[in-house]
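Example A, followed by Example B.
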Amino acid sequence: MQKFFTTGLAILFISTLGLLAVQIFGIQSSQVSFSRQQNGTQTGAYVKVLEAGLGQTEVFNYQRMGFNKGFIRFSPDGRFLAAGSEAGEVLLYDTRGSLIWRNTVGLGKLSALEFTPDGRAVLVGDTSQQGCLFSLDVTDGKELWRQASVNELGVDIREKTFPGMVAIRTDSAGMIYAVAQRYIKHPDGRNQYVGRIYKYTHDGRKAGAFPSDQNLDCWVSWLGVDDDGGRVVFSTANFDMAKYTYDQNVYCLDGTLQTVLWSRYLDAIQPYPNVTMRTGLEISGNGGYVAGIASDGRCFLFDGEQGEELWRRSITQPQKIAGVYINSTGNFSQIVGEYAIFTTGNTYNRANWQLPTPVENPNSNSLFVFDLQGNLVNNYKIGGMIEQISTGKHQAALAGGRNVRSKDPSVHGLYIVAIPEARLVDYAATTGPCVAAAISADGRYAAGIEAPIQLDDGQIIGEYKLILLAKQNRQ
């Protein structure tokens, strides 16, 4: 009887969420069944020009929340592709697929990658005993300068709690902004966060820090900077109910990192004790809008000048089934022209994320496009975790990773989607999960990184490798 009761609840849950999604958003699944490949891709709009191994990496399974990573960026002029591996190696290719150089930096794992605005250097962050930001010359890969975060964040090698430069951004004047972070899980269960936001000149001189005289005591792993460097935004995440000095969810600083222009606290919703924003915020190039998405599935748009909340939308909502809450996580936010873009991830069991969920949230593993007035324009469901998103002028590249419930490898791959139509332009299947994605500013090139995965039967599929696509020249 209990089995039938639970099944009935699951069916009711699916029906209710589906109807709710259609009524509120007009959402209809755009997921496509893939059957054939042309020149290594689904539609033939792009052609595969490079597959290159990135060395060995640890192999994980579906039960692990964290997973392999990779970092890829196209240069501003679209001539080069930089790739960073978990082994600490940086590689530079031209967009014809030729390797220019490779360099191993630091003593730990890579945790961030970016080009300078003039394309003359590759900026690399690592998580190690020093927690460094490196600048590498594009011509030969030689180190130009480095800055460490260990003096502010500290290190405890015995506990393997290393500092790391986990996010890098630049402005049009060539100034560099970086987030450094260190996380400590104490034996008694307490969470401790140590962080700092830095500003550097193009030649590596420190030009500012926030806070100036102490560390952030909250989780910060992301930041956004407007084109002129006038505003810097970041969001926070805390995983317990301890008191924090920096207890707001959203912050906007002036470009010198000396003044908090505005901050906002967001009310938590059941069953979450607080609001977490791990992969936001983003600010528009002109500084007029700030977009963010919380892990609970609510997305927000703020006025960039005053911090007024312009609107919020719930693209996924926690639902209680047989006494347990399940929900699809909110992940990434982007502002592309006149549109705000948000993504959702896998469906998790709130009580224990390692346990399977009876159903999937219908809005999981999806991309949503809103106009700046808060109207849903389109959505696209890829069926696997959107591990990364990269946007160009009219397109987005999505890294299609694991679906931890269905465990279906056929959803793995690099997806190229038109914006704002949320229409599939092309798709390159990967055997293992695709864990990184990049697209050039003009949309001519796209890239992804595949990682291996261990299936439930012990079989390992996929490999750690880089994939480069180029748009077909059609007459």
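Example B, a separate protein, is given below in the same form.
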Amino acid sequence: MPRPVKVPAAHQVLAILSHLGRQAGPVPAAAVARELGLPRSTTYQLLATLAESGFVVHLADDRRYSLGVAAYELATGYARQAPLQRVSRVPLARLVDRTGHTAHLAVMHGREVIYLIEERAPGRPPLVTDVGVRLPSHLTASGRAMLAALPAAQVRALFPTQDAFVTRHDRGPRSLSALRRLLVEARRWGHAVEDGEVTPGFATVAVAVLDHTGHPVASVAVTVPQAEFRPDLRGAVVAEVGRTARAIAAQISGHTPQPGPTTAATSGVSRPTSSGSAGATPRPGV
């Protein structure tokens, strides 16, 4: 297969669109140039071209730029085509076959996670993680795995006050500092865990799926009855969830999946030495 030819202008255009998509509101061109390390003249020229094609809107009175209607059409096209679900369904089914437990795929939406796929293992009871269900991200293993891959500032923006920390069954982090400790642990271990905070009697292990930039686009998780969540099973489930997350990351990014994290038995529990999530190097977190 021929090596792809790099086109600097194309990379710069995509970097600008990605940057605008991550902002809370319209931003000045100078800020775009500064954040992306681009010459100002190049930034203005590219923004003008994007504005002509409708991907960017120039708010002249504010001297700022935001995403345009064409960018929205791309996003809605993505939602219609559901490539993430299409790519993930078979790997998730194989994950269920290998572990014997229910698996699910979730994405972040604000402070919540939305479950896109649930592959229920034969003979296992239904869970609250059905397709379309939303849950607070800080309470779920899926949400914690993705939050652990986000920059600290973004996590703070998602959880600005105590009111953001809702609980279920009177369990879960109730402050940003408590959430930070969980996210540090998730990065250290290479996966996130939730133990009875969403549904009493069940524990969940999750690993984030990262795109080529290191951004968490989803998470893969497996839920196990607490009575069966022994150290040996936990290590096996962690390995399989990580393997599946890497496979999905390779599909969506076009990169060959990296080898799974090396594990070492300590007190009977496998400890991944990777720093958090599957598919790319995680961004600095909280």
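On Example B: Residues 82-272 form a domain with the Beta-Lactamase fold (CATH 3.30.450.40).
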